[in-house]
Amino acid sequence: MSEHAILWTALSVLLLPMLSYVIIFFFGKMLPRKGDWVGVTLLGATLVQAVRIFVHFWQMGDSQLRYEGGFRWLDLGQFTADAGILVDGMTSVMLVVVALVSFLVHLFSVGYMHGDRRYERFFAFLGFFTFSMMGIVLANGLLFLYVFWELVGLASYLLIGFFFHKPSAADANKKAFLTNRVGDFGFFIGIMIFFTAYGTFNYMELFAQMQLAPLTGALLTWAGVGLFMGCIGKSAQAPLHIWLPDAMEGPTPVSALIHAATMVAAGVYMVARLLPLFDPNALLVIAYIGAITAILGATIALVKTDIKKSLAFSTISQLGYMVMAMGVGASAAGMFHLTTHAFFKALLFLGAGSVIHAVHTQEMPLMGGLRKKMPITFVTFFIATLAISGVPFFSGFYSKDAILAGALAFGMQGKTMIPFILAIAAAGITAFYMFRMLFMTFMGKPRDEERYSHAHESPWTMSVPLLILAVLAIVSAGWKGPADSWFSKFVTSYDLPAIAAEYGHQEHHIVESDHHVAVDDHAVAHVDEHADSHAEAAHGDSHGHGHGDAHDDIHHKAHNMAMAMSIAIAGLGIFLSWLAYMKKAFSTEAIRTKLNPLYKVLQNKYYFDEFYAATVYKFVLGFAWLNAAFDRIVIDGIVDGSATVTKIGGWITGSIFDRYVVDGMVNGVGNLIQGAAQGMRRVQTGQVQTYLLYVCTSIVILVFVFRAL
Amino acid sequence: MADHILSWMTFFPVIGAVVIAFIPKGNKEIVKTVAAAAAAVPLILAVRLFIDFDRNLDGFQFIEHFEWIKTFNIEYHMGVDGLSVPMVLLTAFLSFLCIIASWKIEKATKGYFALFLLLEAGMMGVFCALDFFLFYVFWEVMLLPMYFLIGIWGGPRKEYAAIKFFLYTLAGSVLMLLAMIALYLFTTDPATGQTGTFNMLHMFDQANHTGILTLDNVRFALWMGLFIGFAIKVPIFPFHTWLPDAHVEAPTAVSVILAGVLLKMGTYGILRISYPMLPDQAKAFMIPMAILGAINILYGAFCALAQTDMKKLVAYSSVSHMGYVLLGMSAMTEAGINGAVFQMFNHGTITAMMFLCVGVIYDRAHHREINGFGGLGLQMPLYTTVTSFALFAAIGLPGLSGFVSEAMVFMGAFPVHQTITIISAIGIIIGAAYVLWMLQRVFLGTRNEKYDDIQDINSREMFTLVPIGLVVLFLGIYPMPVLNLMKVSLNSLIAVINVAG
Question: Is residue A61 predicted with pLDDT exceeding 60?
Answer without folding.
Answer: yes
